[in-house]
Design brief:
The complex is a heterodimer of chains A (173) and B (776).
Chain A (H helix, E strand, L loop, with lengths): L1 H22 L9 E7 L6 E3 L2 E7 H6 L3 E5 L8 E5 L2 H8 L5 E6 L4 E5 H6 L3 E3 L1 E2 L2 E2 L9 E3 L11 H4 L6 E6 L1
Parallel strand pairs in A: 1-12
Antiparallel strand pairs in A: 1-3, 2-3, 4-5, 5-9, 6-7, 6-12, 8-11, 9-10
Helix pairs in contact in A: 1-3
Chain B lengths: L9 H43 L2 H24 L6 H16 L4 H8 L2 H23 L5 H12 L2 H74 L3 E8 L2 E7 L1 H7 L3 H4 L4 H9 L4 H10 L3 E10 L2 E13 L5 E10 L1 H50 L5 H32 L7 E4 H11 L1 H7 L2 E5 L7 E4 L1 H18 L4 E10 L4 E10 L6 H4 L8 H7 L8 H11 L3 E7 L3 E12 L12 H7 L10 E5 L3 H13 L3 E5 L2 H10 L4 E5 L7 H10 L9 E5 L4 H9 L4 E4 L4 H13 L11 H13 L5 H11 L1
Parallel strand pairs in B: 7-9, 13-14, 13-15, 15-16, 16-17
Antiparallel strand pairs in B: 1-2, 1-5, 3-4, 4-5, 6-8, 8-12, 9-10, 10-12, 11-12
Classes of the chains: A alpha+beta (173), B alpha/beta (776).
Chain lengths: 173, 776
């Protein structure tokens, strides 16, 4: 049931997003870039030797719609409220075309995440925890947060590895 | 078929007993399996949880970030372009965030379990806070400052390195022990599985065996069911529920009996159903059977179906379980209506036949009376005439009239005797008698005949013979008389002999053999076979020209048979015949007095009235004027004073009015019959002397005699009345005149005496003996 609701939400949000993405390219980031999405993206707003990228600053990410996921984690005490856009919304905004995302952190830790994760679960790109912006010292500024308490099957080592914090970039392949 | 539906609940219990051990083992193994499985899954979860976040990674990454920051710091100090100020600050933040992991969440808790962890992290944070300002203030190329900061932070490297080593070792140990436990559990699981399989196999084997047994039971059940289906009795199975005998099953015969389909019968209360459908009340029987646990049955339960009576044979049997508890009941009904109807029809037919027989017997009694009464008149008148002055010719005529009358009476008596014998109305009587005297008295009767035909007559009774006997003397006399009668009838020269032999037997019984032989014409062998049969050709022949009914031998054989004896004949035509009679009798119960010598002949010879009767007051109750005249004349000749009345009422009045020495009472009279009148007289108060009452009747049936004795009568005279017999009775009854009032001599004794005396009187002795024998 929950999955069904989640799927409805995906359809409702993806519909207009897809229409927008086809019409125009992403505006350039005005503030410092928090996240750059590279690889198979159709709406890049920047480019360098490595290829086109869709870059997002804080305002752009917040503009994708702040969602809340309440869950406990192995690295925090108690249940925390994480806020931020859904990862799939961010990827939609970048106009992704691929099956896998390689997420890389500031310390160069990287992990591959199947696109299905974002389609199946409301995974957020957390920018805030309990109303406070996430800082670099506290796993910020961006942390991919899975709704672990809501979906028991996510409480595994494999999923834990995908809770990448201090996220810097996503590469869609 | 629903015989199985009545399956007892105890079957469940016995099944539990049978499968119990296997089931318990299976349950234990399954439980053990579940527990072990749970334990395994818990261990696995533990392993998974521990591997979910590798704390060794977290610890070592702190060391890595420390070295990276120190490296970046030194590079920045050298003025390298590769490292910017932002990079240094980022590295500082990353190191900070790494240290934060030691303080929060599940990961922080697990790392906190290591003693040196808390101390190291606390020290590291303190150092980071202390150095933060210095790091912020560091300028590119200030190699000395960067070196100092780096050196200070470098001192944290050793503790973190040691910590991560410790964590690695601890994690490996934990992982190893969990694995060992897991392996052990897996080993357990294997054994448990073996156990589950084994007990499961046993259970399955038991089930297979049970299934086979069930199949056999099923076959057996089907056989029983078939038997019930084709049975010709109604079969019902019930069980008790709330005091009702609820029907579980009934066979087709039962539903036919009730004329209702079995679906309407099942579930009903048996008692109520039978009451309602057949009007049969067996409720109490059913309840009694249930209460006492005992079979109850009734051979005839009467009900009603279609307006007709219905008889059922009913059987109700409790069915017990092995523990003796009643589980159900078995009922059987048989419709015995047809049999019962046949029985009733037979009984009715028998009753009808008996009624017919009684009517015949009554008719004979009436006929006997009706013929004897006029004969009495005729013979009485002849007797009166004989006493008068007559010419020789007149006397011959009178003699012919008398003998014809006597002959007619004999014919009548023979027919009556045979009828009574055939109808089983003849009863033997028992009294003590002397055989020698009996034989002598009978042979004396034939003395005139012997003289007439010029024959010899011998009677041979050995002195040692047992002659004091007990039995029906009158019937024995009748037999002997008949045989002697035939002997004289068919013997024209030579002799007639009587031989008697007795053989003492056990227990006071005596076998008596009487042989009557003659030198007569004899009997052809073919005729010897049939002479004892009634109305046979031989009888006709025997009878030819000799008068009589020819029933004599038939009567003899019947009488002898009644005495459990036999009669046989040996004969040779032209030489002679010998009839042998063998009967078993008892010895006399008491010693007999010396035989009374005949006294009647004296009176006859003298022609004078005997002294004993002179002046005696005699009341005669008789409705027939002819008989009144005969009796009155006879009595007056004997010197009696006679009063005659016409019915019982007058007799009673007369008896009450004056004292009589004797009353002669005809049994059949108008208004009040002789029996009732005698009873009334016996009840009369104030009679100084109760007169002896002598019954006078033509009835020859046994029950009449009994009725007379019961009415208080003392003696009995058969019609037609003969002077000799009358004289004898008077002699006996009047002898006690003036002494005691009542006479206790029983009727039977008096009757027997009567025949004895009668036999001594003159005239045709045979006729009289027969009359006396039969009439009394």
């Amino acid at each position: 049931m929950r999955r069904f609701v989640a799927l409805l939400a995906v359809l409702a949000l993806a519909g207009p997003g897809a229409a927008v993405s086809a019409a125009e390219s992403l505006p350039a980031a005005a503030d410092p870039v928090l996240l750059s999405v590279s690889g198979a993206v159709s709406r890049p707003n920047a480019s360098d030797g490595a290829g086109p990228r869709a870059e997002f600053d804080r305002t752009m990410l917040a503009g994708l719609g702040m969602q809340t996921v309440r869950t406990s984690t192995d690295w925090t005490d108690g249940v925390k409220a994480f806020r931020g856009p859904y990862v799939r919304d961010v990827l939609d905004a970048a106009g992704y075309r691929g099956e896998t995302v390689t997420a890389t952190a500031l310390n160069d830790y990287s992990v591959e995440i199947p696109m299905a994760d974002f389609e199946r679960y409301p995974v957020v790109l957390a920018m805030e925890m309990d109303g406070e912006p996430l800082t670099r010292r506290d796993k910020g500024p961006l942390w991919i947060v899975y709704p672990r308490d809501e979906f028991a099957e996510l409480a595994t080592a494999e999923t834990n590895a995908k809770w990448i914090w201090q996220l810097r970039s996503l590469e869609v392949r | 078929m629903d015989l199985a539906a009545a399956k007892p609940r105890s079957a469940l219990i016995s099944q539990c007993k049978r499968y119990g051990p296997a089931l318990v083992a299976l349950a234990v193994f399954c439980g053990w399996f579940a527990v072990s499985q749970h334990s395994v899954s818990r261990l696995q979860n533990e392993l998974l949880a521990s591997s979910k976040e590798n704390i060794y990674w977290t610890a070592s990454q702190a060391e890595v970030e420390l070295l990276r920051f120190v490296g970046a710091l030194r590079d920045y100090g050298t003025g390298s372009d590769a490292v910017s100020r932002a990079d240094v600050l980022e590295r500082f933040d990353l190191l900070w965030s790494r240290l934060n992991l030691f303080r929060e969440g599940e990961v922080g808790r697990r790392l906190g379990e290591f003693e040196e962890s808390v101390e190291t992290v606390t020290r590291a944070f303190a150092m980071l806070r202390a150095e933060e300002a210095a790091v912020q203030a560091l300028r590119r190329g200030d190699i000395a400052e960067a070196g100092r900061i780096a050196d200070r932070l470098q001192s944290l490297h050793a503790p973190f390195r040691d910590l991560s080593l410790r964590v690695m070792q601890a994690e490996e140990r934990r992982y190893g022990s969990s694995h060992a436990k897991l392996q052990q559990r897996h080993g357990d699981l294997a054994w448990i599985l073996v156990g589950v399989l084994l007990s499961g196999a046993v259970f399955v084997a038991l089930l297979v065996r049970e299934r086979r047994r069930n199949q056999r039971l099923h076959t057996h059940n089907r056989l029983l069911a078939t038997a019930a289906e084709i049975a010709n009795t109604g079969i019902v199975l019930t069980h008790l529920r709330d005091g009702e005998h609820v029907i579980d099953y009934c066979n087709p015969h039962f539903s036919d009996m009730l004329r209702r389909p079995d679906v309407e019968i099942r579930g009903c209360d048996l008692g109520a159903l039978l009451e309602q459908e057949l009007g049969v009340g067996v409720g109490e029987l059913l309840d009694d059977c249930a209460a006492r646990g005992q079979r109850r049955n009734d051979s005839e339960v009467v009900g009603r179906r279609d307006g007709e009576r219905l008889w059922l044979r009913f059987d109700y049997v409790p069915v017990m379980s092995e523990t003796g508890k009643i589980t159900s009941f078995f009922a059987e009904f048989e419709d015995v209506t047809i049999r019962k109807r046949a029985e009733l029809t037979t009984i009715a037919a028998k009753e009808q036949a008996e009624a017919g027989s009684k009517a015949k017997s009554d008719f004979l009694a009436v006929m006997s009376h009706e013929i004897r009464t006029p004969m009495n008149g005729i013979l009485g008148m002849v007797q009166l005439l004989e006493a008068g002055r007559l010419s020789a010719e007149q006397r011959d005529y009178l003699e012919i009239a008398r003998s014809s009358g006597e002959h007619l009476l004999q014919l009548l008596n023979d027919v009556l005797d045979l009828s009574k014998l055939e109808a089983g109305h003849m009863d033997l009587e028992g009294s003590d008698f002397d055989l020698r005297e009996l034989v002598e008295s009978v042979t004396r009767l034939f003395e005139p005949k012997r003289l007439e035909k010029g024959l010899r007559l011998t009677a041979d009774i050995p002195p040692e013979a047992v002659t004091q006997l007990h039995g029906d003397a009158a019937r024995l006399r009748q037999v002997l008389f008949n045989l002697l009668g035939n002997a004289f009838k068919f013997t024209h020269q030579g002799e007639v002999g009587v031989e008697v032999e007795t053989v003492g037997l056990y227990a006071g019984r005596v076998r008596v053999l009487i042989r009557v032989s003659d030198t007569g014409i004899g009997i052809a062998p073919a005729d010897q076979q049939v002479i004892f049969d009634p109305f046979s050709q031989a009888q006709q022949w025997l009878n030819g020209g000799h008068g009589g009914t020819g029933l004599g031998l038939t009567i003899c054989r019947r009488l002898v048979t009644m005495m459990d004896g036999s009669i046989e004949v040996e004969s040779e035509p032209g030489v002679g015949s010998t009839f042998s009679v063998a009967v078993e009798l008892e010895r006399a119960r008491r010693a007999l007095s010396a035989p009374v010598k005949s006294g009647g002949s004296a009176a006859c010879e003298s022609g004078e009235p005997p002294a004993f009767a002179r002046g005696a007051r005699v009341l005669v109750a008789e409705d027939s004027p002819t008989n009144q005249l005969v009796v009155k004349t006879l009595l007056q000749r004997l010197g009696c004073e006679v009063e005659v009345v016409e019915d019982g009422e007058q007799a009673l009045a007369e008896a009450a009015r004056r004292g009589y020495d004797l009353i002669l009472m005809d049994l059949r009279m108008p208004k009040l019959d002789g029996i009732e009148a005698a009873k009334a007289i016996r009840r009369l108060p104030g009679l100084a002397v109760a007169p002896p009452i002598v019954a006078v009747t033509a009835d020859t049936l046994q029950r009449e005699k009994k009725a007379c004795a019961e009415a208080g009568m003392n003696a009995y005279i058969a019609k037609p009345i003969r002077r000799a017999e009358l004289e004898r009775v008077l002699r006996e009854r009047l002898a006690s005149r003036g002494s005691s009032g009542g006479d206790s001599v029983p009727v039977a004794y008096a009757a027997e005496t009567a025949s004895t005396r009668d036999a001594a009187s003159p005239g045709d002795p045979g006729q009289r003996a027969l009359t006396a024998g039969c009439g009394i």
